[in-house]
Amino acid sequence: MYPIELVKVSKSFPAVEKGEKDLLILDQIDLAVEDGVSTAIIGKSGSGKSTLLQIAGGLDKPVSGQVFCSGTDFATLSDRDKSYQRNRHIGFIFQANLLLEDFSALENVMSPALIAGKTEKECRDRAVMLLERTGLKERMNHYPAQLSGGEKQRVAICRALMNDPDVILADEPTGALDEENASAVEDLLIELAGTEKKSLLLVTHNNDFASRCDKVYLLKNRKLTLLKDEK
């Protein structure tokens, strides 16, 4: 059983013009995200990387194939049960950090655990620990508008780790950052995935960032090709 497994997954979008064929984005994709292994997917813009990640996280549906999260087929779940599965097994990090603007950094990090029904003390203790580990001890009561881009993304990483998920899904997590902040966030994400023993599935344009992962795939012409395997 894998934290995330895709079996013969295909995805297409409806044709814009009548009489045209649907646009095939992913074709019979097989991918297993292994326990404690970091996996990167690279490819050109428009190749389907983000679509693949959204399908892997149950945020989008394939037109065919199966997607398993910790052994459970997403297709068998109601929307409510799918949300429950994601909340407990998957941590998401996006290029747009998607922080709640009316919540402090601490409250943003606590939110997934509160949704999961944990006590406020449990949530606060772990959130504080994560923020301190990522160098945000003095910033935890600040709101997103008061944080730099790099700080916001560190908050987003903490939030993704809050419920101790099996796997972290990261979609261009440094794409909106300058070089210095991007490098710091890359270091942090790779380090935390290792020390917390998390699986990591990363999509990125940054080949140097991708090369730090155990496995690297290229998504091209709707197919995945394994470029590196050092697990």
In CATH, the topology is named Rossmann fold
Assigned CATH superfamily: P-loop containing nucleotide triphosphate hydrolases
Listing every helix as H and every strand as E from the N terminus to the C terminus, the arrangement reads EEEHEEHEHHHEHEHEE
Number of strands: 10
Mean of residue pLDDT values: 91
Give the overall silhouette. Answer: globular
Q: What is the CATH C-level name?
A: Alpha Beta
Distance between the termini: 17 Å
Number of helices: 7
Structural class: alpha/beta
- CATH architecture field: 3-Layer(aba) Sandwich
Q: If you compute it from the alpha carbons, what radius of gyration comes out, rounded to the nearest whole angstrom?
A: 18 Å
Which range does the strand content fall in?
Answer: 25-35%
Largest sheet: 6 strands, mixed
The number of domains: 1
Low-pLDDT regions:
none
The strands making up the biggest β-sheet line up spatially as 6-7-8-3-9-10
Name the helicity range: 25-40%
Oligomer: single chain
Q: Please, could you describe this protein's structure?
A:
By secondary structure, the protein is α/β, with parallel strands linked by helices. The chain has one domain: P-loop containing nucleotide triphosphate hydrolases (Rossmann fold, 3-Layer(aba) Sandwich), CATH 3.40.50.300. It is built from 7 helices and 10 strands. It has a 6-stranded mixed sheet, sandwiched between helices. The chain has a 4-stranded antiparallel sheet with strand order 2-1-4-5, with helices on one face.
